[in-house]
Design goal:
This protein is mostly helical. It has one domain: Amino acid/polyamine transporter I (Up-down Bundle). About 75% of the residues lie in helices and about 0% in strands. It contains 19 helices and no strands. It is globular.
Length: about 450
Amino acid sequence: MIESELKRTITRLPAILLVVSSIIGSGVFKKIAPMSDTLHSPMLILACWIVAGLLSLMGALCTAELAAMMPGSGGEYVYFKKIYGRFFSFLFGWGNLTVMKSATIAALSYIFAESFNTLLPLPDLSFAAPGSIGHNVSIKIIATLLIIILSYVNHRGVIFGEKLSRYFIVSIIIVILSFVILTLGSDKGRIENFNAVGEVPEGWPLMAALFAASLSAFWGYEGWNNIGYLGEEVKNPQKNLPLALAVGTVIVIILYLLVNACYLYVMPVDQLASINQGMNKIAAVEVARVITGNIGAIVLSCLILLTTFSCTNSTILMSARIFYAMARDGLFLKSAGRVHSIFQTPSKAIMWQGIWALVLLWSGNFDQLTDLLIFASFIFYGSSAFGALLLRKKEPDAHRPYRVIGYPVLPIIFGLFCLTLVVVTIMQKPVQSGIGLFLIFSGIPVYWYYTRKLKEVEGGVK
């Protein structure tokens, strides 16, 4: 028999750890180098991580109010359907399939494969353009295998996939804290590095540099909203979803500040900036090499493998629920709305998500994918913040197990920031933005097709 509903199996602590595991990926290890190359100021770099973290926390708190009111599978897909209507919620789901979550899976798996290649060099099977990012076919083959394996793992059951993420993220947190303690206790670092400033831009170039650096930091925080997609599978979701969103995001902010402070303590900002000019170098690995030599570099490379593996797994686990919710509403392939009778998972939704992630993996590179998904994501993050405002006006007396703190100031600040980021990105990166918008709105004919089918079915029933 084919089941049509998912079971509530995820408790509070696993939900918090899933938030952490869906955020911590490659960004905190890779982005310090380009941020240093852009800003040349330790304090400005740390400020970008703090601001990006606080804004992500604002977004999490706004989303938490909606999640507590409507704890169903699909997260924002469910909230948007109530607030903005079925068409907008469909565009959100379609955007996640074509750009956001599928691109996240592709980008994370690619970084996993790059790190794997650093530890165990693979045969260099190159594209026609040697030296271009992502030219090594071997790397993409490893990334492909990771997506296939983890899709299969999560097809086998949410408890299996959640436990895998839980064990990995606990290990990752322990290794990160050990790295922080070892670094701060090392005689290789210097407090004076925090005052060592390079050629910091001024005026409008500084604003542009801060914007670019903030985008790098936001990639590090991407994924904080994923737990909402499992709303139908979280026990006592009215309490546990808001708590998981808030506590998980705060844990990541603290870890990110500690790790980036360690980088700047060991290496002057200009030296970190020079890493950005080198090929196949990761700042975290080079810092570990300074402290403990090649052994430390190997340990950090293994840590990056763990984090990207864990984050890829969590993203596959949670985001497939969006397409499951769409299919259950008759707006996506019917098979994606079925729950596996044995494993109690939306196995077909996971399969279709994996197929498109593979298409994106082989069609782009890491930087292209992250540019696309960050831009597209903030369109809908802002919609969540404004949605909380609209729903307060529309249904002021509705039961709200959790109310966002600082209302209405906090949702307004976060919503306006998202709007600003989207507009500035369109101005600065029109090609990437145009591709992102095209992929989102390419769902319009698909929506027309499925709504017509629904009307035909409804007409037949009548």
